[in-house]
Write a structure and sequence with these properties.
The complex is a heterodimer of chains A (about 375) and B (about 90).
Chain A lengths: L1 H34 L5 H18 L6 H4 L9 H20 L6 H17 L6 H33 L5 H41 L11 H17 L2 H10 L5 H20 L6 H14 L8 H32 L1 H25 L28
Chain B lengths: L6 H29 L19 H29 L3
Helix pairs in contact in B: 1-2
The chains are: A mainly alpha (about 375), B mainly alpha (about 90).
Chain lengths: ~375, ~90
Amino acid sequence: MSNDIILALVIVTGLSFDFTNGFHDTANAMATSIATKALKPRAAVGLSAALNLVGAFLSLSVAATIASGLVETGLVTLTVVEAGLIGAIVWNLLTWFFGIPSSSSHALIGGVIGSVLAAAGSHAVKWQGLVSKVIIPAGVSPFIAALVATVGTFLIYRIARSMREGSRSRGFRIGQIGSASLVSLAHGTNDAQKTMGVITLALIANGTIPAGATTPVWVIVICALTIAAGTYSGGWRVIRTLGKGLVEIESPQGFAAESSSAAVILLSTHFGYSLSTTQVATGSILGCGLGKRGAEVRWYVAGRMVVAWIITMPLAGAMGAVCYYIADAIGGIGGIIVDLVLLAGVAGLIYARSRSTRVSPENVNSEWTGTVAPPEPARVPASP
Amino acid sequence: MSEWIDGTAIWEIVVFGLLAGAGLPAVFAIGVRALSTPGTRHMKGSQDQLVGGSPAGMAVAALCFLIVLAAIGYGIFIIVKSGHAH
């Protein structure tokens, strides 16, 4: 009985992570289309949400692989999963607050590894799997994506150079809608699966379903709906950094960037070499700045992102470990509830802070002045 | 290549990534440009008029867009097929 309550709490926490995964990554697909006004902000997040939902049902190949190759699954308990998820959620909220597109997958992997280290020690982690399946791909993926987007941007500007600017923008805006849709679809096939995998792992750990069982249909449906809802809520802060902060984007560049992202993500899924959607999208956007002569690339923004990428796994891991120690010291349901109360407190604080520097569909495209939230226009003093 | 770095996968993603992620957008660009080739529809209306109206241009554009759509359709088909085989 008490195990079933813990399981229910783990599932709810998993879905909370899924939701943050959705709004953290809306930018990967839609930031460039919003920046070039190919789509209105609300329409963009709506389209992205719908396609994430479809994508989540398209392919199931990524599900359940997230933990099995990285940690000894026999040592994974519900408390370990719960602590790892909480670490990942806190990291996603922090990076969202600072408008940094960091990888949700890395946050999840880092959180789970941190809590498993705290629970069972370093023999519980498959270090070679971690390096070959996560760290090396993380290192190469931005370069692959940037290369493809640079070549694509260069070719497109060569081919379209004789066109009038007006017709060119219009043509490539239509292309942008198509390519951004593909990125959303790819995101659904990739990231929605990761939460499905974690929840399946929890169900197996609890003995609810036998080991080796496939993901139950109800898990697929709620995970797909949750990531779509998260996507629709639209992480405007990250959208702004990727769409306006990194490179000033024209529609042919946006089209090249999203095409590169879609191709690289779908290919990596197909060849079983899991890449981070976020790092691919960021690399592509950098590439579309490199491929166009005279385009401005703000390297200090890119530098901040790289720093965030490097510290994502260690810090999400540290938070996962701390959550595990707290839950373990108190024990049982009580420990997990204390963790969840702490999570709610931290989330509430971050959310409250974000209200004072709000980024919304209305100001997401304001000119980049170096801060995530655009400076507020002078306000008329409220009447006394 | 080694057990740490999957060189084959990286190599495949780079080559096919360039073909699909840069090549197809280039084909689309050829289509957009061909579509706007000046023809029967005079370019005096709005600045962002997209269709020029040249019959040859429209034919090339249609071919380009067909290639792009077919490639995307094939790609999604492959993903769905391999994604449910497990």
